[in-house]
Amino acid sequence: KGLYEAVFLADSYGKPVIVTECGKPDPLDDGTAPEFLVKHLVWLSRALRDGADVQGFFYWSLMDNYEWNHGLGMKFGLYAVDPLDAQKTRVPRQAVEVYSRIALGNEIPKDLVELYPEPR
Fold first, then answer.
1. How far apart are CA 35 and CA 45, in angstroms?
2. What are the φ/ψ torsions at residue 60 (nearest 5 degrees)?
3. The pLDDT of residue 18
4. Angle, CA 10 vertex, CA 35 and CA 110 arms, to 5°
5. Rounded to two decimals, what is the model's pTM?
6. What is the pairing mode between strands 79-81 and 90-92?
7. Which residue from 2, 25, 59, 92 puts its CA 20 to 30 A from 80's CA?
8. What is the pLDDT of residues 59-111, one digit of tens each?
9. Strand, helix or coil at 35?
């Protein structure tokens, strides 16, 4: 819900809003990133429905990388990257399929909303 409120606060300045770096660390690929993504995009879609001028949404990062205050310890990309792998092979995390389905369909599929419902 905080994203919804933040979008309207930013929108109140009369400028289009672009949400950047929205995501969460997902070091164990434990399924929490897909849930985080769906719930945040549900709130963002509500903001659009209610008139916010949102022009873009970007997940936190495409792939794991170096963070100044955490080094290589935080794993937050859509794709996992082993820093010791010379080829820097990208391995998709669970959020990739979810984000892809949402982006390609330009909507949040009903089954994802039902899988990750808002608490009542």
1. 15
2. -50, -55
3. 94
4. 30
5. 0.88
6. antiparallel
7. 2
8. 989 988 877 787 877 888 899 988 888 998 999 999 999 999 999 999 999 99
9. helix
